[in-house]
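During the second half of the funding period, the structural biology subgroup turned its attention to how the target accommodates small molecules. The most pressing case was ME8, which had performed well in the primary screen but for which no bound structure existed. We therefore specified the complex as follows and requested a full 3D prediction, including the ligand pose.
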Amino acid sequence: MKSYYITTPIYYVNARPHLGHAYSTIVADTLKRFHKMLGEDARMQTGTDEHGDKIVKAATAAGVTPQAFVDDISSVFRNLWPQLGIENDGFIRTTDPEHKKAVQVLLQRLYDKGDIYFGEYGGHYCYGCERFYTEKELENGLCPQHLTKPEYISEKNYFFKMSKYQDALRQYILDHPDFIRPERYRNEALAMLEGGVLEDLCISRPKSRLTWGIELPFDKDYVSYVWFDALANYITALGWPDNENDESGNYRKYWPGEHLVAKDILKPHGIFWPTMLMAAGLPLYKHLNVHGYWLVKDTKMSKSLGNVVDPLKAAEHFGLDAFRYFLLREMNFGSDASYSPEAIITRVNADLANDLGNLFSRVLSMNAKYFESKVPALGNQLEADDILSETTDNAAANFVQLFGELRFSQALDALWTAIRAMNKYVDEQAPWTLAKSGDTERLGTVIRTLLENMYKVAYLIWPIMPASSATMQAQLGRPQGPLSEAALNDVLHYRMHLRTGLEIASSSNLFPRLEMEKEEAPAKPKKEKKAPAPKAAPAETGPKAPIEFTDFQKLDLRIGTILAAEQHPNADKLLRFDVDLGEEKPRQIVSGIAAHFKPEDLVGRKVVVVANLPPRKLRGLESQGMILTAEFDGGLSLLTADAPSGSSIA
Ligand code: ME8
């Protein structure tokens, strides 16, 4: 069985998890799930980076020991991941005793080989980055990351001969064009290797300055540089070095693996780590996959700006699967993306509530109405049915290809071409008209074609939205499909997956529309205060001012027949109707009459509709007209006339 190993950065425990950490970890989870779907033995690894100055400083500020501090925050990370639907197979801490021992073996191996030497070094040290900067690397004398003035430190330290591997690494990157991807980061890494001789890497800190680290096995007065310790996690987590030659161990099974990082840590992963692996005589990772930064409303997330996004709160507020979908769909992998409540609400309402959710809701409720919720048989197929299935098959194949290339946004967009085509097919095939004309065989074929195509989407969306995928599959009468190469091939290449006659869900409310809350809405420019307008008489009671006949003529009043009626998914007081006005397609009308009527009693009723009002959204559903009613003593009656649908009223 092919294996697949994906890692996230191990996060510093000096800060609580935020949106950026959640993004990398959710992406790693979806990749692991995707590779499981391909039938591979997939493993995902995350963890926490717990040594170094930064952590000591944070612990001191919190008034606790470094150990107590790291135990606390590490468990916040560990406990967060399952709540975001993440199934990590391992969680490594750099304070784990096995990791510490393994790092010492790695250090000793490089030392014995002569790749680590002792020397004097003076440099500009940034405590935030925990690294030395050369004069050239500083920007106006400041650390380019933190914009703070580094401290000039001169001391004796151990160095890793990184320069020795410079040419070999450069050649390796040239020979393996997708070793670091997307391409812009490969070019950045190459530029680092081509801009003169690479400096050797200072891999120790004297204990006189820092004790919170892994002691060097060859000099007890020094601890390891935090990055040297941290990078090794990717193999120590697999049980290296004890199982280096053990065919059945995790190291041989999963290494070399795939790394996922953001652009901030390209250098350690693109330069330090592969040269360390070369020196240790170990295979290099397969790919370094580098993503961009999440900005919040186009601004860098930072504690001081108070705009740090708590991923758990966001997932709870918007729905976990909706949040996961948004992150993968919105960010073009490799580029920066902007997070805001408006962006997530717009995306979720358009793609999930309107497109996917609405498709499931309307098809399942039609199937309930016309076939008592049983999967109808497929009759003779027409060209339109074949075109739809072909569109879905192409979309599914594109989705799999693009997702494998980490082009998540494009992959989802490809899958959505199928969802949009299905909604269009519903409108064009107009099952309600087939039902009216009694063409049950054609009606069954249309609904069955839809259900089969919907199943493919439900199955394929699992890596991104595992819970919703399971619900959708169950709604179609197939509990969570198996994950194997054969199962995926079935979904991609066969068109029939459901059982004729099986009773399936009669309704679906997967993704309720999100409403913008006051604090989420963009600030409106303040309006000039106007003098209060004279109060109009209350509309319902008092007589209204006379109007011109030409005003009355502006009204387009028509007779409509209610074809379908149901409760509005997001509002108790509203009903949603499909009303035939004699036009090509029925109109969707939303009306606030739920307190007075049961939806099922209204199907088939003739009503009077104001047909030329502009469409209006009512709790997320578009209303394309207004049904007229007469009010009396708290009761309500529908205006009606015995005339065919579409007759105009004059
Ligand atoms: O660098 N957008 O840890 P760290 C997207 N311990 N991703 C973001 C992000 C943002 N705005 N902010 C952070 C470290 N990330 C080291 C790693 S690995 C051997 C050692 C994510 O806590 C992204 O994955 O600073 C980034 O690379 C990582 O968090 C940095 O996490």
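Two results from this model are relevant to the next phase. Residues 341-371 form the longest helix (31 residues). Residues 548 and 554 are 10 Å apart (CA to CA).
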